[in-house]
Design brief:
About 25% of the residues lie in helices and about 30% in strands. The chain has helices spanning about 1-70, 75-85, 235-245, and strands at about 95-100, 105-110, 135-145, 150, 155, 175, 185, 190-195, 195-200, 210, 215-220, 250-260, 265-280, 290-295, 310-315, 315-320, 330, 335-340. The chain contains 3 helices and 18 strands. It has a 5-stranded mixed sheet, with helices on one face. The chain has a 5-stranded mixed β-barrel with strand order 5-9-11-13-12. The termini are far apart. A hairpin with a 5-residue loop joins strand 7 (about 185) and strand 8. By secondary structure, the chain is an alpha+beta fold.
Length: about 350
């Protein structure tokens, strides 16, 4: 009897130890499963961030390329794929859609790509019989004309504008201050002065802000603005430094299609905005800089006293940088802003 009781006591202790072992094993599975899920969630977020970067880059890139030169659906998809792959850590992303159906808008959708599958492979939680995960992202870029803007206080006459759908860059020309030019007729049928005019500075030092379809006040003086607080010399010196370094100086200027006076104050009606490459200028008498620079690059475009003018050419320009102003409904004069809208 004593032996039997002793065996029973040993068997009870073994059972307790076995129960603890089972509990530890279950807890280890829970801990391992939680760790696997944490790793997988991190992988999913990382994958989605890469896909979003690829979708953003693809939408912006396709919008810029297709606006400039036009593109087929296949060309757009190839361009988007290259940008999406470049933003994936493994260099492999899937373009599920490039939507060009909306005018002046591009939508790119990206998904995970593992071989021929669109789901993430080798997830740790798969050992827990978790379902496969498909990750995707999308971005929409729009092509917009500027509706307002601020910058160097010049407004250019519509009569000088020489771009068309067929050309990217206009001819090198001299644009003289408006009294030095013969009158012309705008596309709206208005008789307006040619050349350019100075705008009232209302946006800070050497700056003027304007809006499409609005009348902007102009400064009636022919010479370079020199009122207190209107020192533009620093801006011009910056242009000179850029040109001498081999860079282009591109200014986005308002273009007027009508002009007049109201109670003695002059105004320009702003049609839209165009980009003009500044090559040279003469904003004052004499030949000293920075108010005068490279004012006779060719005999045909020379600007000598008493001339006041700018020398350069219009250019089509697409910008994906932030810009001062809002998108609008003005005429497309070759200058557009491309931005992400979704």
């Amino acid at each position: 009897m004593r032996r039997l009781k002793q065996r029973l006591r040993v068997t009870h202790a073994d059972t307790e130890r076995g129960a603890v072992g089972v509990l530890v094993a279950v807890m280890m599975l829970v801990i391992i499963g939680a760790g696997a899920l944490a790793v997988d969630v991190g992988q999913i977020y990382s994958e989605r961030a890469q896909l979003q970067n690829g979708a953003d880059a693809g939408a912006l890139g396709v919008a810029q390329a297709c606006h400039k030169a036009g593109c087929t659906q296949a060309e757009a998809e190839a361009f988007a794929a290259a940008l999406a792959n470049g933003n994936a850590n493994d260099g492999d992303a899937n373009i599920s859609e490039v939507d060009l159906s909306v005018p002046d808008q591009v939508t790119v959708r990206t998904t995970t790509k593992n071989g021929s599958s669109s789901v993430l492979a080798k997830l740790f939680s798969s050992v827990l019989d978790a379902p496969a995960v498909s990750v995707g992202a999308h971005a929409t870029a729009s092509i917009e004309v500027p509706g307002s803007g601020g910058g160097f206080p010049l407004a250019l006459s519509e009569c000088q504008y020489d771009l068309s759908d067929a050309v990217e860059t206009g001819v090198l020309q001299r644009i003289r201050y408006k009294p030095g030019m013969a009158g012309c007729t705008s596309t709206s049928g208005h008789a307006i002065p040619g050349g350019f005019g100075w705008l009232d500075q209302n946006g800070g030092q050497c700056r003027a802000t304007t809006d499409v379809d609005d009348n902007a006040a102009y400064d009636p003086g022919a010479d370079y603005p020199s009122k207190p607080g209107q020192n533009c010399d620093a801006v011009l010196q910056g242009w000179i430094n850029s040109i001498q370094a081999g860079d282009e100086v591109l200014g986005v200027f308002p273009v007027f299609d009508n002009a007049g006076k109201d109670k003695g104050k002059g105004w320009f009606h702003i049609r839209g905005y165009a980009t003009f490459q500044m090559v040279g200028w003469k904003f004052g008498g004499g030949s000293s800089g920075p108010r005068t620079y490279n004012n006779s690059p060719t005999p045909a475009t020379a600007c000598v006293d008493p001339c006041r003018g700018i020398i350069g050419k219009f250019k089509k320009f697409e910008s994906i940088d932030a810009f001062e102003g809002n998108s609008g409904t003005g005429d497309d004069l070759g200058t557009v802003y491309i931005r992400l809208t979704n």
